[in-house]
Design brief:
By secondary structure, the chain is mostly helical. The protein is built from 21 helices and no strands. The longest helix has 57 residues. The radius of gyration is 37 Å and the shape is elongated.
């Protein structure tokens, strides 16, 4: 047997641990779904050691007893009693641990229960004892990247429960059920989740779905005395669910149709207290109608509030625009310039541009006009409005001389704006102009030299 069938990189994903003292029954129930990251490697090492040891011949009596348990497990699984079938196949495996058929059936049943680590162990053991197609198929499947992704999604559903993100977990689990309707644990988890959320309708729905594929699941022992027993599912409803399943275009990750007897039969379940359920359903429907009316009234009120807020915002905007217009017309050039600086520091770039433009238009002093032109160009550059940035940088260079404060700054920023906008030729032309006009400028630096060499 070639141990390399399972690559080291494809170890099972690590699932989250739940403390033993955890009081939440929902989280406790999830423990059986977890897979440890080292389990696969441990399985391989243990089997290598076991296979190298001398094997003893199994007596006919032991074989007969194990085959009896195997046949009973197979028969129960075919009728949908997966939990009892697992108990019997475990017994058969304990008696006759090297029988390939027993190991393969155990692997299939564990897979249905989402006990992925035990499923892998059974199939891998069967493959080691006898190279058979069924074992190899499932070893390859459980070691595949596709299955690792599936485990990741399953893992996320558990993480979301731990983080109280119940709706996110429900969404993932429902998708898993759509793709792999034979898996048992997603129904158990959804039942426990909806029980925790006190959504009894959904709770009953998933309990009934669970009963269809695992009639003797241990969860039913906990609900025997519960007044909220599952409601009856009609044949028509079951047919609709089957049609939905058949119409699904999603390719299942886990090919279950290997042994015909494992196809779970559908049926109608009758309960003595159906009248109590009907009464409760009627009460819930009445309460739901009342809640829907309250929701409609709340929606209407919220819509009215949103409309009022929108009108208020529009009024405030108009007031702000009027105030800005008045300030732009009445403030001095110095006040306009300082107001523009304040707005720029506050991150209100668009408003700042209005005040710089007003300072340029209404100004009479070179100090404020020149500074406003440069600041305006720089603001446009930060907004990636390169056309306006270039226009105002060029306006500064063409209006003022190298002796003015921002002359070489404007020259350098003009070149960088050309460069940032993808115009390398213009950038080079500008930097050559900077060297010529202001040879001693600090901006004749390594960055400029690097661009000129391109």
């Amino acid at each position: 047997m070639n141990i390399d069938l399972v690559e080291e990189e494809k170890s099972d994903l690590t699932f989250f641990n739940i403390e033993e003292e955890e009081e939440n029954e929902t989280l406790k129930a999830l423990k059986q779904s977890y897979v440890t990251s080292n389990y696969k490697d441990e399985t391989i090492l243990n089997l290598q050691s076991e296979l190298n040891s001398n094997s003893e011949e199994v007596s006919k009596e032991i074989k007969l007893k194990s085959y009896n348990d195997y046949n009973n497990a197979l028969e129960l699984a075919g009728r949908g009693y997966i939990t009892k079938a697992i108990e019997l196949i475990e017994s058969a495996s304990d008696i006759n641990p090297k029988d390939i058929d027993i190991l393969n059936l155990k692997g299939l049943l564990k897979l249905l229960k989402c006990d992925f680590s035990k499923s892998f162990e059974s199939f891998y053991t069967a493959l080691c004892y006898g190279n058979n197609e069924l074992s190899k198929k499932y070893v390859d499947l459980l070691s595949s990247e596709e299955f690792k992704i599936f485990l990741g999604r399953y893992n996320h559903s558990i993480r979301f429960i731990n983080e109280e993100l119940n709706q996110e977990s429900i969404h993932i689990l429902n998708n898993i059920i759509d793709e792999e309707p034979e898996l048992i644990e997603p129904y158990v988890i959804l039942y426990l989740l909806y029980n925790k959320l006190e959504n009894y309708e959904k709770k009953e729905y998933y309990l009934e779905k669970l009963r269809q594929i695992d009639k003797d699941n241990k969860i039913f022992d906990e609900v025997k005395n519960d007044s909220l027993l599952p409601s009856i599912t009609t044949n028509d409803e079951m047919k609709e669910e089957l049609v939905k399943t058949k119409k699904s275009n999603k390719k299942p990750i886990i090919p279950y149709v290997i042994i015909g007897c494992l196809v779970v039969g559908l049926g109608v379940y009758h309960f003595s207290n159906k009248s109590k359920i009907d009464s409760l359903t009627s009460e819930l429907s009445s309460k739901e109608d009342k809640l829907n009316k309250v929701d409609e009234e709340l929606d209407k009120t919220n819509q009215e509030l949103e409309e009022a807020n929108q009108k208020l915002e529009e009024a405030n905007d108009n007031l702000d625009k009027t105030q800005v217009k008045n300030e732009l017309a009445t403030l001095s050039e110095e006040e306009l310039y300082h107001k523009a600086n304040s707005l720029k520091k506050a991150g209100e770039k668009e408003d700042s541009i209005l005040y710089y433009k007003a300072a340029i238009k209404n100004g009479k002093t070179k100090k404020y006009i020149s500074a406003s032109i440069y600041e305006l160009a720089y603001l446009y550059e930060t907004l990636e409005d390169y056309d306006n940035a270039i226009m105002y940088y060029k306006k500064y260079i063409n209006t003022y001389t190298p002796e003015d404060n921002y002359y070489d700054d404007a020259f350098y920023q003009l070149g960088m704006t050309y460069y940032e906008s993808g115009n390398l030729a213009k950038a080079k032309e500008t930097f050559y102009g900077l060297r010529s006009e202001v040879p001693n400028s600090m901006y004749n630096n390594s960055k400029v030299n690097e661009i000129l060499k391109k």
